[in-house]
Amino acid sequence: AQSVTQPDIHITVSEGASLELRCNYSYGATPYLFWYVQSPGQGLQLLLKYFSGDTLVQGIKGFEAEFKRSQSSFNLRKPSVHWSDAAEYFCAVGAREAGTALIFGKGTTLSVSS
Amino acid sequence: DVKVTQSSRYLVKRTGEKVFLECVQDMDHENMFWYRQDPGLGLRLIYFSYDVKMKEKGDIPEGYSVSREKKERFSLILESASTNQTSMYLCATLARDNPQHFGDGTRLSIL
What we know:
The structure holds two protein chains of two kinds. Chain A contains no helices and twelve strands.
């Protein structure tokens, strides 16, 4: 079965500390992988994507993610968290074929403490 | 920049009403999607469309229908609204080799 697992429902990080949000996927085809962020009351904004090539991808707002095929993981990282990073983060997997919807994880809520 | 516009940010309706949620995109993308988002459940796919007048059921289509008469517009219809359809509804578009782009969502309350 195709699925995305975000093991952490809620994470609290101190401002300035590093962050890693975990994502594991199960997908039959070659995966396209994404991280989205959602601020309260807003839609989803794309942080970064992996289609192919370099397994370390850079995104917006200082985020990066590393694709590890052997571990079926696509973890999101940021070296120094800012209070404005508090939001809900979604990992998603999809295929290249037209008409294929993304499969989303259930999300991780990030709180930032001062 | 891709723009996906959902007609209402907040909507309150009564049980039994027929409810229309509208989504318009400006990028000529073939694929459009409707999700609902509930706490602890993430995003669940209701319906999607890969072309005008074409539609496919997603994971939770019961109680919903869709319409795509024009490429830029994808409507979600609640045939007879019920309280368990109170949720955040998100529309998205997709072009080949590109990530999905989302609207800001419609928070729908059914009383």
